[in-house]
Specification:
- It comes from Stylophora pistillata.
- The protein is mainly β.
- It has a domain of 87 residues: Immunoglobulin-like, CATH 2.60.40.790.
- It is 4% helix and 34% strand.
- The protein has one helix and eight strands; from the N terminus they run ββββββββα.
- The strands form two sheets. It has a five-stranded mixed sheet, with no helix packed on it. It has a three-stranded antiparallel sheet with strand order 3-4-5, with no helix packed on it.
- The chain starts with 9 loop residues before the first strand and ends in a 32-residue tail after the last helix.
- 16% of the residues are buried.
Length: 166
């Protein structure tokens, strides 16, 4: 008989001094079994178009506080905000294991470097519309630009170019 292959969902992560953001990308997740302990996260659920069983067994590099951690499940993904047990320097990696699994990726949309200011982090949970309104709202920036208003006068570098030689 052939070996049964364990399926692991695509998983993204990012961190701050006080928390880890973990996103399990699995659409149509049915009754997920999630066990979060101070140094591990175990996940199992049927999901995806084919409703196959997906599992994760993550052993974290450091410890998290399950009581202060939060989770949010949508139709497309499971999002975790895992409170680090001790606030402090960034972990050098998410998992204790030396080898990074192929399903684990950096979440560049949420990633901040350790030396980035906290100011940059405040608006992360706002949606795109809220962010746009903070940038000037309607009547400012790109929304007020009308290409018909652009100055199309001839520029000095708009001269005809000579034909290319064969």
């Amino acid at each position: 008989m052939g070996e049964v292959k364990t399926l692991s969902p695509s998983t993204k992560w990012a961190q701050r001094k006080d928390k880890i953001f973990l996103t399990i990308e699995l659409a149509d997740c049915q009754n997920p079994d999630i066990v979060l302990k101070s140094n591990t996260l175990q996940f199992s659920s049927k999901g995806g178009n084919d409703q196959k069983t997906y599992t994760l067994n993550l052993e974290f590099y450091g410890e998290v506080d399950p009581e202060k951690s939060k989770q949010h499940i949508t139709a497309r993904e499971l999002f975790f905000s895992l409170a680090k047990k001790e606030e402090g320097p960034y972990w050098p990696k998410l998992l204790k294991d030396e080898k990074k699994p192929s399903f684990l990726h950096t979440d560049f949309n949420k990633w901040r470097d350790e030396d980035d200011s906290e100011e940059e982090d405040r608006g992360m949970d706002d949606d795109f519309e809220a962010m746009m309104s903070k940038m000037g709202g309607p009547g400012a920036g790109a929304e007020s630009f009308d290409p018909g208003d652009a100055d199309v006068s001839e520029d000095s570098d708009d001269e005809d170019l000579p034909d290319l030689e064969s």
